[in-house]
Write a structure and sequence with these properties.
The structure holds 2 protein chains of 2 kinds.
Chain A (H helix, E strand, L loop, with lengths): L8 H12 L2 H8 L2 H4 L5 H6 L7 E6 L16 H10 L4 E3 L5 E3 L2 E6 L5 E6 L13 H12 L8 H4 L2 E7 L2 E6 L6 H4 L25 E7 L3 E6 L13 E6 L3 H9 L5 E2 L4 H8 L4 E16 L9 H9 L3 H7 L5 E3 L23 H11 L6 E5 L7 H13 L5 E5 L5 H5 L5 E6 L5 H8 L14 H12 L3 H18 L2 E14 L2 E2 L8 H4 L2 H4 L1 E2 L1
Parallel strand pairs in A: 1-10, 1-11, 14-15
Antiparallel strand pairs in A: 2-3, 4-5, 5-7, 6-7, 8-9, 9-10, 11-17, 12-16, 12-17, 13-17, 18-19
Helix pairs in contact in A: 11-13, 17-18
Chain B lengths: L1 H31 L5 H6 L5 H11 L5 H13 L13 H36 L4 H15 L2 H15 L15 H7 L1 H27 L2 H8 L4 H9 L4 H17 L2 H6 L5 H10 L3 H29 L1 H4 L3
Helix pairs in contact in B: 1-15, 5-6, 5-9, 5-12, 6-9, 7-9, 9-12, 12-15, 14-15
The chains are: A alpha+beta, B mainly alpha.
Membrane topology (chain B): Multi-pass membrane protein
Subcellular location (chain B): Cell membrane
GO molecular function, one term (chain B): dipeptide transmembrane transporter activity
């Protein structure tokens, strides 16, 4: 490989990436400007000088005594946070959607986006004292891509044909072109471990600013500052403590009584009340998670495009955001993508509740008037049963009879979701549009939970994946969004915000819609006032 | 006649052991007939047929049930509870720590509530029908009527958040001194005391009142003994059996039934550990926890029966 025909895609990503997230534009579309403006502005946070020392205490929901420190197995929130705290990935996604070089110092690709080269940072030490090499990176990626791997990142490793090391570079050969590979490598499971973690995957050894001291799954985790950490601009605390507090009220009380500095997953119902308490602030950030109702496009009566359209016009998205999310969220537009994603086209018209159009489409569909069964369980997403009832009422006003069938939480994901033709579900989002579409809307995807099969859509997805020109990609994604919104089986009424409680003592907070609590980087970037 | 009592006690112990054995079979069968399996529960929404097959193979879920039961039972008799399916940790190690925490919490709750309940019971009998009796009954019955989580939240809000006297999260670790630990668990102990107090207090009161109607109490009163002495010296020893029974039931509850309080106060005890693993269908852990809970329950009931046997005046003073 010669250096001449390599394009430094990273620079292009970062230059164009900055402009795509038009915060003001989005806020005015949603009418939620007041809510979104709640956080400390990114630039203001950077302007202050970090203070070293102190112990950061976080009270986290979503922890289980069944979890391990193996990054491959990290599924729930607390496992995500522990992984982020002790480990690092090759790259991170910045809050503005650009890439942040962590254990890689440079990323470049061949012009056809088939071969990617990651230059690995030198002088980085693991917590066991050994030095990071490109071979550790290679072994890590191999472990996550083994056929019998249970890694949460297995899906994104599937497109890789070959991986190798040349000098200090880690090189990936893809089976088909993918311009998003750097974003995929930022997946939090892909924490670089010594020898890929093959010797002891759950040892909790990484290159992060904090070293694991105590790990009691489902109870607490403690970390101490790793003295040999390579990046002086991060890791300001002497130590970090996570308390696993799954009860929402107990989490709020722990923050209010000053036992912890940061809590995750504040319930929308109490966020407003909690925000009034002294000494803390409730931060709400638009994320990529969304709550959906999904129809199988190949099963009667949902194989009728007019009936699908009737149902899409029969749902009141604004009402759902107000009543289910208490305003801590934004309306969806029947695609799984929102402004948090790179290359989002915010000029697509918003679909609204329209009883007249819904009636028209319903009559055109020729449905026999028998009740349409919507399956739902509280476990589908918080407030799913209430949301289904709101849907039932708004559809009734359009003359469409919906029948709600309440299912038990137990077994919902194996017996109802992806099995029954019409049910409630959620998605937590993916790093890039390509991956979200490829996971659930490509006709051949395992989790194609709407049984969407559209050759044009599939072709555009593959075309966009290989396209390095960002303007052309954006146009392709726009066209795909139009196809999916009009033809697909997805009814996406709302995107939920990440809502977190943060003590006034915490400085350096920044908004990040990638994943919750600053994309898991609060221990790296914040400090105590 | 002591031989007769010894025989009764020995019979009771043998019965307890038999019960534990039967319970172990039931626990094993119970976990077998649950719908779905560990592999499905672990993978959840992200299950694909290949990853399910991989995980089932790795977890050894394909062996026949009887074979798995006997290897499990022999393991337990050797003190080996196996390893957790979901995170590969040693169960005995994890449980001993959790069980220690649960017993610590239960012991302090019992240490406060049992004497308090008996004293309050004695006082209400002493002042039967007058205001102390009514106040005690009203207070303890209201405490038991409020659901545990509600009581926990109320205490948390006023004592921890508003007054700042006690932590709202009862986290324990090895570096804490005994005093720090007691401070940490003060709120959960308070809630547990309130939950179990009424039951024991009312039972003490009822048992004593029952005995107080006996002819020999009337004799004692006619002899001119003070009422408090009549209650303490003559009535109480003969009402020990029912009181011990209800005390033991409540102590068993303190060990096996405090999941809600543990979750609310984030106390690292057995209850929360069990619940996490039930939701993951982590069968070895569920079986081990179930067996330990059953053993605690059977043991405490056995103690209650033995105390009743020993306290029975007809057996102690045979004609």
């Amino acid at each position: 490989m010669t250096n001449k025909n390599k394009t430094s895609t990273y620079q292009r990503f970062s230059r164009k990436g900055l402009s795509r997230r038009s915060l003001l534009g989005r806020a005015s579309v949603l009418g939620l400007g007041a809510l979104i403006g709640g956080g400390v502005p990114f630039s203001a946070a950077l302007a202050q000088e970090p203070v070293k020392g102190g112990i950061l205490k976080m009270g986290l929901g979503g922890g289980e005594s069944t979890e391990s420190l193996d990054p491959a197995m990290a599924l729930v929130q607390v496992a995500f946070h522990t992984t982020r705290t002790f480990g690092e990935t090759l790259l991170d996604v910045n809050p503005d959607g650009s890439l942040d070089m962590r254990l890689a110092t440079d990323v470049s690709s061949s012009p056809d986006a088939m071969t990617w080269t990651f230059a690995i940072r030198e002088g980085v030490k693991f917590h066991d004292g050994s030095e990071l090499t490109a071979d550790d990176v290679l072994e890590t990626m191999r472990r996550h891509s083994d056929e019998d791997s249970q890694s949460g990142a297995l899906g994104i490793m599937k497109g890789i044909k070959d991986m190798r090391v040349e000098g200090g570079n880690f090189i990936v050969e893809l089976a088909e072109a993918n311009a998003d590979l750097p974003y995929l490598m930022s997946d939090y499971h892909l924490v670089i471990q010594p020898n890929g973690g093959r010797d002891n995957p759950g040892a909790g050894i990484g290159t992060g600013p904090y070293r694991v001291v105590e790990a009691e799954p489902g109870v607490r985790y403690t970390f101490e500052k790793f003295a040999d950490y390579w990046d002086d601009s991060r890791g300001h605390f002497d130590g970090v403590e996570f308390a696993v507090i799954n009860d929402a009220t107990a989490r709020n009380a722990a923050l209010q009584s000053g036992q912890v500095h940061i809590i995750n997953q504040v319930a929308p119902k109490v966020a407003g009340l909690l925000g009034r308490a002294p000494g803390l602030e409730v931060k709400s950030v638009a994320g990529r998670g969304h709550y959906v109702f999904i129809m199988h496009c190949d099963t009667a009566p949902f194989d009728n495009a007019d009936l699908r359209m009737a149902l899409k016009y029969a749902i009141n998205r604004e009402e759902m955001v107000d009543k289910i999310l208490q305003g801590y969220g934004s309306v969806g537009n029947d695609i799984p993508i929102n402004a948090s994603y790179p290359l989002f086209d915010d000029t697509r018209p918003q679909r609204a509740y329209d009883p007249e159009l819904a009636k028209e489409f319903y009559e055109k569909s020729g449905h026999d008037g028998s009740p349409i069964v919507l399956r739902v369980a509280e476990g589908a997403f918080p407030g799913a049963v209430d949301a289904a009832q709101l849907f039932q009422e708004s559809a009734r006003a359009c003359g469409i009879p919906l029948e709600i069938s309440r299912e038990p939480d137990d077994g919902y994901w194996s017996d109802v979701w992806n099995v029954e033709p019409f049910c409630a579900s959620y998605w937590s989002g993916r790093p890039v549009q390509d991956q979200m579409y490829a996971t659930a809307y490509l006709s051949t995807a395992d989790w194609n939970d709407t049984r969407f099969d559209n050759a044009e859509f599939d072709a555009k997805l593959v075309e966009a994946r290989a396209e390095l020109d960002q303007e052309k990609r954006k146009q392709l994604y726009r066209e795909m969004a139009d196809i999916l919104a009009d033809e697909g089986g997805l009814i996406c009424p709302m995107f939920n915000d990440f809502i977190e409680g943060v003590s006034d003592q915490i400085q350096g907070w920044e908004e990040s819609g990638v994943l919750e609590v600053m994309n898991g980087l609060a221990p790296h970037k914040c400090w105590l006032a | 006649m002591n031989a007769y009592i010894a025989k009764l006690v020995a019979q009771r112990i043998a019965l307890g052991l038999l019960l534990i054995f039967l319970v172990s079979i039931m626990i094993f069968l119970g976990t077998q007939i649950l719908p779905g399996d560990v592999a499905q529960a672990i993978l959840g929404q992200s299950a694909t047929p290949e990853s399910l097959a991989n995980l089932r193979e790795e977890l050894g879920l394909n062996a026949p049930a009887t074979e798995r039961y006997f290897s499990w039972l022999t393991g337990i008799l050797h003190g080996d509870l196996g390893t957790s399916l979901s995170n590969g940790r040693d169960i005995a190690g994890a449980i001993s720590e959790r069980l220690g925490n649960t017993l610590f919490l239960a012991a302090w709750a019992a240490l406060i509530s049992v004497p308090l309940a008996i004293i309050l019971g004695l006082v209400s009998v002493l002042y039967r029908g007058r205001w102390p009796d009514k106040v005690i009954s009203a207070a303890t019955l209201s405490a038991i009527s409020v659901p545990e989580f509600m009581m926990s939240y109320i205490l948390m809000y006023y004592v921890a958040v508003q007054l700042g006297w006690a932590p709202s999260v009862a986290m324990l670790n090895d570096r804490m001194s005994l005093f720090e630990k007691l401070h940490a668990i003060s709120l959960p102990v308070a809630v547990l005391v309130m939950v179990v107090l009424a039951h024991m207090m009312r039972m003490t009161r009822a048992a004593l009142l029952n005995v107080m109607q006996s002819a020999y109490i009337e004799t004692a009163e006619l002899k001119g003994i003070r009422r408090s002495a009549v209650i303490w010296r003559h009535a109480f020893p003969n009402s020990i059996a029912p009181i011990v029974n209800v005390v033991m039931l409540n102590m068993a509850y303190l060990v096996v039934g405090v999941v809600v309080v543990e979750v609310v106060f984030v106390y690292p005890g057995m209850g929360q550990y069990l619940v996490d693993h039930v939701s993951k269908r982590d069968v070895p852990v569920v079986q081990a926890c179930g067996l330990i809970f059953a053993a605690v329950y059977i043991f405490l009931n056995m103690v209650a029966d033995i105390v009743s046997i020993l306290a029975n005046p007809r057996l102690r003073h045979p004609k």
